[in-house]
Amino acid sequence: MRINRVVTRVGDRGETALVGGSFVSKASPRVAAYGDVDELNSWLGLTVCHLQDRPIAELLEEIQHGLFTLGADLASPAGVEVPRIEKQHVLRLEAMMESIMDELPPLEEFILPGGGPGGASLHVARTVCRRAERTTVALAADADVNPEAIIYLNRLSDLLFVMARVANRREGKPETLAVFSQRKTRRRNRSPTA
Fold this sequence. Notes:
single chain; 194 residues; Hypothetical Protein Ta1238, Chain: A; 4 strands; elongated; two-stranded antiparallel ribbon
């Protein structure tokens, strides 16, 4: 694909073109879904800048490429020929999760999002991913949506949560347990030596 111009003026009336050439309102559920995926991709790019952990950063860059495929999938009505999210994409996310999960102790309580800059940014990305999943499910209520796209987003939000915990652990940042009552905030040290 070659992008010759950024300013096209096509969207000046509140519409945008989908892959395949049809036009829809920028407020449509389809645009909301792939817009949330685009936002997620941008958050991951920012997260890579904050991470000290290069192995996780490399996994995130791989995920960013997958999100371009997902965006094209969501921006394309059924019947339009584009790359689509497939089961292999979901399996790759699961393999990534398996490769880092062993570093973490079991989670017995909720934790507050935070830690170091990289871990905190991963937590934000996780919540953006959850929103993208919700808007994609909403789109699926009214339009044909590749079911693997929804599974992919669900799995990705789980992976981003695990990555946030691993990044914080590798950087020696403690996890803060969530408090639902008058208990004092407790921290669990999740450094590699703990």
